[in-house]
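User: Could you walk me through two proteins back to back? I'd like the raw sequence and the structure tokens for each, with a short line separating them so I can tell where one ends and the next begins.

Assistant: Of course. Protein one, sequence then structure:
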Amino acid sequence: MSKVVIAGDASGTGTFTISAPNGNTDRTLVLPDEAGTVLTTAGVPASAMPAGSVLQVVQAVSTLSFSTSSTTYTATGHTASITPSSATSKVLVVYGGNWCIQAANTQVDVTARSNQGATNLGLGTFYSATASGFTCTTLGFTFLDSPATTSSLTYTIHAKEAGLSGTVNTGTEVKTLTLMEIAA
């Protein structure tokens, strides 16, 4: 016959009470034949989630306008921050926004960078050889970052003019930057 043992924690000072609900039906609670954590109404702790689970989602919506003719990446002011719950977690970076170019042979490159370094994370690009006035399109990209930290991370959208000449810009249309912590 198997036994059920309730073991207290020697360093704890609280009292835990097991109580039955006010009911008229007999119930049987069958314990699983494996080690683990019993789920409660408090939810599943992030450490117990299987690999690939989404642990948290942060989204920053921006209507800031931005314009540049610089051929080096420039911060657009669109940022989002997330603090991973585990150093092994990944961060899925998803960006989408409307961008315009204002001259022929102009290209806009849009990327994200984290406060951990100047590495480009993902790339959205749009080129027009025949632009007359404004030519616009929706740019987006997705990138899975491996930051290896539990410190706060801030991701910033950067853009540059990567063609021969011209100006690239985004108006006040809605642009979204979504960060998802993914369990590893």
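----
Protein two, same layout:
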Amino acid sequence: MSLIFSLAYLFHHTSHAAPLSALSDRDGDQCIFSDQRRSKEDIIWSSLAVIFACTWVSVRPNIPAHDDSQLKNFLRRAGLMFWTLMVPEVVIVWAMREWYAARRFTKEFPSAFDLCDYH
């Protein structure tokens, strides 16, 4: 994934933000702008890249089965990422359900989690 972002960065035409002094200089009624200012497309591109990267890294799917292919794992993770972007509340409900299930499991099988009990 880092390779994809690196290649996108290298091949995407980027411009640097103009210094504040270049934006505040005035010549009569016209503003004098530097050639190094960000366009709307640059701002949108960088925002989408950050959102994508943060979502991809933050969503942690369950451990896959040993016979799952890499494509299946990728599609599962992409689906989770899609739902995280579209409906973030679903991720919170998903985490709460897993927490409640783990809590119920530890109450039903307390001996499975007792590391000091060797009888």
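The chain has a mean pLDDT of 76.

Let me know if you want the two compared in more detail.
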